[in-house]
Each structure stands twice: as structure tokens, then as C-alpha cells.
Amino acid sequence: MTERQKKLVAVVLGITFLIGLFARISLSSDLAAIDARLEEIRRVGHSSEEIALLQEEYSEKGNVVSLITLGLIVSGLALLYFMNAGLANRVGFALLTVALVAFITYTLIRIMPGDPIQQLATELVRERGLSYEDAVNMAYTLLDYDPEESFLEGFADYMAGVLRFEFGYSWVYHVSVNKIIARALPWTLLVLSISLMLSFAIGILLGMAIAWKRRTALDPIITFYAAFTGATPDYVTALVLLIVFAVNLRWFPLSGGYDPTLDIGFNWPFIASVLYHAFLPILAYTFENTAAWALAMKGSAVSTLGEDYVMAARARGLRDRRIMVSYVGRNALLPMITGLAIALGSMLGGSTLIENIYNYPGIGRFNAEALVRRDLGMMQGLFLFQAMAVIFANLMADLLYTRLDPRIKLED
């Protein structure tokens, strides 16, 4: 294909992508209106027939949106391939990995013991006084579940929802998993982003220090600290901090994300309350992860110390501080990027045990609740969301590598 033909194909793909994007935005607004109506009638307990009609309408328009989204992905990847083949290959591999994870998640949820229909029907009998038969029929409707549907048909419907960025429906809360994620994610990001950056920064500095001066007392102290935290589960650390600082000393609150008596908003009393409640979870996570980063950085820095460019810098008479920061630290930091990317992706799944101990309103607490209450829809949605976050965090790490190290190319 000539260069002119490539440009023509790229222009056609670009126009197709833009048309599909506008069509998807328009249809998505219609879907949002139907979804809002569905949640309203589910909450007030309208008839199953009305719910079924709305679900049918939502399914028809949703399938169109899913097909458009699939077309956007294909045309976008093709357009990206003409611009940068290496980048297109990496993005395509990430999307295939997401599809594989979605298949595994769907399969595991289907073969898990327990019947969510029976559990929801029992709850409906207890809460609404329905007969068991009516409760079962309503449970099928609420969960949008067809017992006659085959495995492949169910998986196709599930993937159609994933293409619409829908992560399922929680029968415990009677809302979509997307709304649970939107409500819990800011709390998780607040605690884990601060604690991850603190533990990473402190660990990197400690790792460089003990690698540069290996015969000081700091090396065995950090090694013991890493062995201690590695052998101690994070929930034990969280529980000890809770008992000492919240129960005995009463310096910090026992649970919650903020003081419920305050007005929620961008004001200093509310912000101070949020930080006050987040202090112990941040401390627990930072304490548990700092030493691991320090030892990883030490291993990377020690291997860098033997490189020729470090020897040449010493022979030139450069100061130790400049050699440690500019020559050792910068190059030793490169292998840590992948670990940081995985940690950033995993961060979106929350810290289940720590958030549960502090009753903190993050995604980790909803993960635990989904397991305890057998909410398979929420469990499936949250797991897929966390897996997608890790996959695309790794993709971003690959792209960042090409910026940090000019020797690495996207085509490699």
C-alpha cells in the first residue's frame, strides 16, 4: 500500500470513528434516561411487567450501543495501527486481556456454589410479604436473568454490557455497580493514593541510601523492618493502630469517612474531618508497604552501581550526591515503574481488609460486603473493574518506559 493510500484509509477511518462516537453519545443519553426510570420503579416496587418492558427497551438500545462501541474499538485500533503499529499492538493486546479476564470472571461466577435467585427471592418474601413463587419471578426480573439462557448467550449479553462500560447490577443495594464504584472510588483514591505515594517515595529514598552505604546500621534495620511487615498481615497492623490510637488513646475516630454532622462540600471543616478519619488507614497502608519498596530499590540500585557509567562518573571526580541521584537513582528507578503501575492499578480495587476494619466507605469494603452477602453481580463487576485498572496501568507503564528510557521503542 502506497503512502497516499495509507493516508486515504486513515482519513476514512477517522471520519468513521467520529461518526460512531457522536452516535454513541446520543444513544447513551437515551440509555441513561431508561436506566434512571428502571432504578426508580425498582426502588418503589412497581410491577414486574413494567420492569420487563423497560428492560426490553433498554436491551434493544443497549445492543446497538454495544455494536457501535465495538466498531469504535476496531476502527480506532486500525487508525492507530497506521499511526504507530507498536502502540496499536500493545493496546490491542490489553483489550484482548480484558476480554479474557471478563470470560474467566463470568465463568467463575456462574460455577460458584449458591443461588442468588433463591437468596433474593427469600429477601423479597421477608421484606415485601410476597409468595415465594411471585418472589422468584420478581427476582428473575430484577436480576435480568433468564434460566433458559445458555452459557454463550449469557456471556454475549455480559460482554455487550461491558462494551457499554456497565459492570453489572447489585441486588443488595438495587443499583448498578457503576454507581457503587462512583460513590466508593473517591474514598479509596484518597487513602491509597496518598499512602502509596508516601510509601513509594520513602522507600525509594531509603533503598538508595542503604544501597549507597551498605555497611551502616540502616541496612539491617530496614531488612528487619521488611521481614516484620512481610510476615505481618496488613489487617493486624490496622487493628493494632485502631486499638492503640482510636480505642485507648482516643486520638482518632473508630470508623467512618467523615463526621456525619458536618455539611458535605468543599469547606475546611469537612475537608479536615475527611483527612482526620483517613489518617489511620493511610498510616496502616504506608507502614506495611514502605519497606518492600526500600528493598526493591536497594536491589535495583546495587546492580546499577557496577555499571560503567557510574565508574566513569567516579573517575571524573563528581560528588557522591550527584552520582547517587543522577546516575544511580535515575537508572535504578526504571525497573520500579512496572511495580508502581501495578500498585496504582490495584489501588482502584481498594484495600479490602484495612477498609473493612476501619469501616471506611471505599471499594475494598464493598468487595468484602459482596463476598459476605453473596452479591454476585457486585462481586463480578468490582473484580472486572479492578482487573481492567491493572491491565491499563501496565499499558501506561509500557508507554512511560519509552519516555524514560530512549533505548526502548514501542516496536520492541
Overall geometry: globular
Question: How are the strands of the biggest sheet laid out side by side?
Answer: 1-2
Please trace the helix and strand order, writing H or E for each element: HHHHHHEEHHHHHHHHHH
Strand content: under 5%
Segments where pLDDT lies below 50 for 5+ residues? none
- CATH homologous superfamily classification of the domain at 179-372: MetI-like
Mean pLDDT: 80
Which CATH first-tier class of the domain at 179-372 would you pick?
Mainly Alpha
Distance linking N and C termini: 23 Å
Quote the CATH topology of the domain at 179-372: MetI-like fold
For this entry, what is the oligomeric state of its chains? single chain
Provide a concise account of the structure shown:
By secondary structure, the protein is mostly helical. Among the domains are: 1-83; 179-372, MetI-like fold. It has helices spanning 3-44, 48-83, 85-111, 116-128, 132-142, 151-163, 177-212, 218-231, 234-248, 268-305, 308-315, 320-332, 336-347, 352-357, 363-372, 376-404, and strands at residues 169-170, 175-176.
